[in-house]
Structures are given as structure tokens and as C-alpha cells.
Amino acid sequence: MAFDSFAAFLQMGKHGFYVWLSYGVGLGSLILLWWHCCYSRRKIVAGIKEFEARRQRRKTSKTTERVL
């Protein structure tokens, strides 16, 4: 085994802070990217539904007003 104990594993030869910080930043970036994709998808789907509802209302309305 490369490390004598779990504490030595966490310290990584006195470089543990930088190693675990880089893992944390990487994982945090991936989580933020995943959240942003889900949020954007929700907004896009809501926009499409709104557009389709508006299109359906315009299609079914008998009278159309001309708005300048």
C-alpha cells in the first residue's frame, strides 16, 4: 500500500490541500455545469410551450386585431 494510514492518504505527502482542492473545484464545476444545463432546458421547454399556446390562441381566434 502506498500510504501507511488514512490520515497519510488525506495529507498526500503535504500536498493534500492542493490535491483535494483541485478535486473539489473540478467536482463543483461539473455540478454547476449540470445545474445550468437543467435550468436552461427547463427555460427552453417553457418558452416552447408558451409559444405553442400563443400560436394555438391566434389560430383559434376568429377576429384579429391589428396592433401597431
From TrEMBL:
One of its GO terms (cellular component) is plasma membrane. The chain crosses the membrane at residues 17-35. It comes from the Bacteria. Pfam families: CcmD. It is found in: Cell inner membrane. InterPro entries: Haem_export_protD_CcmD, Heme_exporter_D. Keywords: Cell inner membrane, Cell membrane, Cytochrome c-type biogenesis, Membrane, Transmembrane, Transmembrane helix, Transport. Its main location: membrane. Coiled coil: none annotated. GO terms for biological process: cytochrome c biosynthetic process; cytochrome complex assembly; heme transport. It is a single-pass membrane protein. The keyword Glycosyltransferase does not apply. Required for the export of heme to the periplasm for the biogenesis of c-type cytochromes. NCBIfam families: cytochro_ccmD. Belongs to the CcmD/CycX/HelD family. This is Heme exporter protein D. It comes from Neiella litorisoli. The lineage of its organism: Bacteria, Pseudomonadati, Pseudomonadota, Gammaproteobacteria, Alteromonadales.
